[in-house]
Each structure stands twice: as structure tokens, then as C-alpha cells.
Amino acid sequence: MRYLIEHETVLEYPQTVREHHIELRLAPRVDSHQRVISCTIETEPAAELASYNDYFGNRVDYFCVIQPHSRLVTRLRSEVETLKENPFSFEAVPPAEEYEWLGKAVRQAPPLNDFVLHRSLLTPAAMKLAEAISCAFPRQDKDRPLLDALMELLAWVPTVLEYRAGTTEVHGSLAAAVRQGSGVCQDFAHLFITVARSWGIPARYVMGYLDPGISTVGEVLATHAWAEALVPGAGWVGFDATHNLLANDHYVAVAVGRDSYDAAPQRGSFKGDSAGEQPSVTVIMQEQ
């Protein structure tokens, strides 16, 4: 699939601010399943951008607006080709050998431990969620394929959380979302990651875009979030618990991390007397 993506973020302030430093994680990832054909980022006021790759391999564009201003706009325009047509197309590892495969993968790439051991308010220890969840957690039986257990987990998450736009805060506590029984795509991804890590499986958070033809009632077109788990024989496989789907070529990955803090599309700091309003975000995604 080939997509044209346009992403605009507008920040407005009731009083002028200055010395604004911004980091953007908006450029789509480049890997064996995704090819970036073009990518441009513009700002208003105009600023000179530089870039680097962060610890997780995400491209980070950054810039500064020193002069006083009351409005900041960032605009991304990118064309991307996605190549992962069938997420089930891989040579499976026998169940008895899967954890040996995972152990070898972690020994060869020690940073994978970050996706197993990391705990935060967004991805807490699974036992801390137990008292807030009335139903039993899915269990991983090592005598059956790991992918089967992950598919069961994928279907389980929506029984705990109902999708409701605006019911949780950005980077809000997962336990709070579970207690109220509702959340947004970030919460669905964090719950999947939390349980998968409790099984000793590397799992990471993905921020990106989803073809607007696949949507949930009440969903607003914006960035989307899903989880990826390291599946023996397959590598990273995307699990979209919001829609109970495996990620394929209808998904465009932008940034990955241990949780949503690591993959925020935009963050920054400035000097001024007002925090300003919530950002206004407009996303257009068109199949080419």
C-alpha cells in the first residue's frame, strides 16, 4: 500500500512565549516492512530543523524558535509505501523451542531487555492491575504456540477496556483506565504490553497511523497506537487491541518505545507565563 500523510499541529498561547525548543517524532520509520518515499516538515514561525536517531531508532527532528510568538505550527507531509501484507507469513518455531529462541535474541541484542523489564505508570507490573480487573488474566501455556497466547491476549484487552475518546489523559495511568473500564488506543496498547511482558516476552509501544477505512465508532482521525511483541520466527509483530487486528500494510509506524512517553509525536519547553491551550491536531491519510 502507498499512503500520503499530512499531519498539522497548532499550539496557541494567550500571551507570547519565547525560547521554544521542540522535538518531533513524526517522520515514518524505515525498515524491511516500510519505505519512505518522501518526507518534509515545515514550521510556522519558520525555523531551521536538524535531526538525529534516538536510542530506539526513531528519527527525531528538532528546532528552536527564540523570538516571542503566540502561535506555533508544525506540518508534516510524507509519502510511505507499506510492505507487510500478511503478518502470518513466517516460518514458525516449535513451541518447546520458542523461549530458547527469545533468550538467544535477547543475548544477541541486550537492549531488548528494555522491552521486558521496563515498568511505569503506563506499563506497570501486571500484579498491580489484578485488583482492578474483575476477570482473570490470560495465561501463557508453554506447550502451545506463543502466537496463540498473544492472539488470546489481543481479544482479551477489549473485554477489559471499552474505547471512549477523551476518557483518559495523554500518558495517563493504566490502572486508572482499567478501573474506569474505558480508554483510548494508548491504553489498549499499554495493557497488551503489560501482560505480554509479564510472560517474559519483549513488547514495545508503537505510534503511527492507521488507514481511516479501519475505524471504531467515535474514533477521530489522528495518530494511532498499537503494541508489538517479539514472536519467535517472525520478529516484531504488531497487535492492535483497539481493533482486535494484527498490524499489516494498512498501518504506518512512526516511532517505537517502552511506552507512550518514548514515542510522543511532539514535545518541548519554552519560557513564558502561560501553558497555553491543548494542541489542535489535524491528520489526513490518503491511499495513493
What keywords describe this structure?
288 residues; alpha+beta; Immunoglobulin-like; C8orf32 fold; 2 domains; seven-stranded antiparallel sheet; five-stranded antiparallel sheet; 6 helices; 38% strand; globular
Walk me through what this model shows.
This protein has 288 residues and is of the alpha+beta class. The protein has 2 domains: 2-82 and 264-287, Sandwich (Immunoglobulin-like), CATH 2.60.40; 95-263, C8orf32 fold (Roll). The protein has helices at residues 95-108, 114-117, 127-130, 146-160, 174-180, 185-198, and strands spanning 2-24, 34-44, 50-53, 59-65, 69-82, 162-163, 182-183, 203-210, 224-231, 235-240, 245-246, 251-257, 266-271, 280-287. The strands form 3 sheets. Strands 1, 2, 3, 4, 5, 13 and 14 form a 7-stranded antiparallel sheet that branches. A hairpin with a 4-residue loop joins β10 (235-240) and β11 (245-246). The longest helix has 15 residues, at 146-160. The protein is globular and about 60 Å long. The model has no long low-confidence stretch (mean pLDDT 93).
Question: Topology, pairings included?
Answer:
Layout: E1 2-24, E2 34-44, E3 50-53, E4 59-65, E5 69-82, H1 95-108, H2 114-117, H3 127-130, H4 146-160, E6 162-163, H5 174-180, E7 182-183, H6 185-198, E8 203-210, E9 224-231, E10 235-240, E11 245-246, E12 251-257, E13 266-271, E14 280-287
Parallel strand pairs: 6-7
Antiparallel strand pairs: 1-4, 1-5, 1-13, 1-14, 2-5, 3-4, 8-9, 8-12, 9-10, 10-11
Helix pairs in contact: 4-6
